[in-house]
Amino acid sequence: MYTDYNQQHQPVSARYTTSASKNSHNMMSVRRCKLGSAGFGILLGLTVGLLVARTGQNNRCVKKEPRAWRQTSILENDPLAFDEEQNAEGISEINNGPGLLFVGVMTAKKYLDTRAAAVYDTWGKEIPGKLAFFSSEDSLRPVSHPRLPLVPLPGVDDSYPPQKKSFLMLQYMWQHYGDKFEWFLRADDDIYVRTDRLAFLLRSVDSRKAYFIGQAGRGKQEEFGSLSLEYDENFCMGGPGVILSRETLSRVVPHIKYCLKNLYTTHEDVELGRCVRKFARVSCTWSYEMQTILYHNSSGVDAFTGNLKLKEVHRAITLHPIKQHYHLYRIHNYMKGLKIHDAQQQTLELHRDLITMSRLLQRDIYSIQNEGPFPKRLIGDSYLLGLTPSLNKFHPHNEDDVLQWDFIARSVFSHTNLNPRRRIESPLREGLDDVIREVMEMINQYSRQRGRVIDFKEILYGYHRLNPLYGTDYILDMLLVYKKYRGRKMTVPVRRHAYLQQQFAGLEMHETVNGVEVTHPNSDNPGEGTEEEEGGEEEKEGIGTGDENSVGIKEGLIRLGESLPGLLLPGGQQTAEKSQEKLINFIVPLSGRFKTFVRFINIFEDVCLKTREHVTLIVVLFPSDNENTINNTLNLVRELQARHSWTKITVIPVFDTFARALALHIGAGQVSEPDDLLFFVDVDMIFNVNVLRRIRMNTIKGKLAYFPIVYSEFDPKVVYNTSSSFNHFLINEDSGYWRQYGFGIASVYKTDLIQVGGFDTTIKGWGKEDVNLFDKFVSASSNISVFRAVDPDLIHAFHVVQCDPNLTETQLQMCRATRFDTYGSVKQLANILNKNRNKILSFATDRYKKVKFTNKTNNNRTISGLNNNIGTGTGS
Question: What domain range is 215 assigned to?
Fold first, then answer.
């Protein structure tokens, strides 16, 4: 392994020869290359060598005659020889690219169905060229991915370090595809590559020259001096990816056997760098920018598992390492989202160009659609989307239309919210982060040319408002840090005002049933109307008025509403009929509260049973300490069963202390079919038939669980000064509130409930079991998504919340918080305080005096006790 150590470590001056000696060496190399050819012989080798020497080219026999080189270098008994037909079979399955890039991914047998499959499913399908995975000789394609482009390397195992695997992979790439691609990427299976950015970079570099591109390294501090590197030598770190030009690979491959026989370390990337430096005469790119372009995260297994909205992620071309293969899919989806955002921005710019040109031509924007190939929807949207960015797009017609600004500091201050001062909510914080990141990218766009960089420090203050028609507006006062690193270096804090607008993009709507997109009748494309709806042939020829034929956001909504009743599934079934086939099993936990149960039964009968909806009812009945109404409840259910014997209505008595988790668990167990739909509902709920439709549409087996956001009523005594609400479906800020943090009402399939682990039956009493179930569905281990949306037809009727003092501390706090929330809105409670301020002040003063007197008495008793103890010698 160290036979050529002395040759490698001779003085630097002795390792580089004169130009004449280089030419002599190249002639000898050419002769050796050609002498091995059975078809051409010694004479042809000398002739080609003389031609190479005359033109001054260095070591070009491989470059000029790649196929002759293959014949002479792969001998019959060569242990590095390949079965070309067998290995080329896998490569033929990959997409045909433009010949820009060939990617070789080093992997192992145990990672073929995880990491390799994830790479192939994500960025591997977007390469501007070809991709192949290189593994040990006994590797086989995984059953889940039978078309995976796999190359089992003969004589190679998956042991570490993978020097042999790496060098033989490069040899294979050159032998089979050296004359077909300009660039070659050596990659690991725990990397993500942004292929569009990589292609842009490579097309800007001349592949005819020798390049060795990567993140330069010289080893860890503790390895300094032990890697056999000279003071001016480096290597390309293998993790973030190594890129070789065709010229570099052509110079290195003929000497791969030599490099394998002369290894100095166990680091594969170090040895590859040494081989490239010796035979291609190039080093890894000395560029600080490569640390951000080919980005390596030092967090290990936790790398890229958290927030991806980071400048390091956005600037990078490659991300490494991604040890948990399923995070490759997550990153890929995020990158797809960034591409969508870029496409939307380009669309906005096109809309603005159309508006600008229409003004220059002094033409109405709608009249242009009859004279050009523009889609109607594009022209229609231009009227809204094509306006120049401005804070004055919207012109109010009266005082009520004026858009209100929220003040932003460390909190948000707004007079339109029930809570005038509150913390910055997650959507606003995320929007601010996006805006700041994009602003800083624009500011630093030319920082390299100017020799300075500006870093974001904090927002001193700002203003924010939402325009439902145009977008979100920001006025920000930002504290920045100006750093000049060229010329006279300096670091100066600066302030900068930014006036920004996040423009809304066009409206995109897709209707799905059970995860399958539905289409409009007589239309090949989802969401498009028929020819008559589009205006007919005459209007397509340019006849008709512009305003009547424009299709934009407004008409898109109208058209969608008109088309919903006629939507079709691919199989031809009507969506309404398909949706009604789903059986909904209502599961209701109950303990006492007979009057409320009577109301629920009446609603259930009117909405579900009299209309013959496909539903069942399971009541899990517990005894109550407050009322003895078990017999009344049973009689009520028997009467309902007698009137509607065509469906299943069941009561399950449970003689135990009430626990909602146990009740729902028992109720779910009564459903025999694992593919049935379960709807967990409380006896306080008021609903109509629209709720059934939403449950069926928003709950998809194996994909989606539905946790609706219900509307909870305030105390009618506070709102209406009456004992009950006169209209339960009246929704405004005075009558109730949306229960954003309530998860008790849920719709799931039984198979999905079992998959996530079901309810935690160790939770006793009221509360916490719903949050526990919700957390199970949103956890990383669950492959089922959660759908949350407000449901205006699902109302939680007011009742006084009774909190059992025997509950756990967490449950008791949740219960009391719910009870406090149901009294009334902040505005209503403030009015009550204002009207009764004298009584409340008197009550508070008396209470304060009593508390002060009690504390003083207790303190006197404590001091007296201490004195007694000290007097008797028992004090400490």
Answer: 74-320
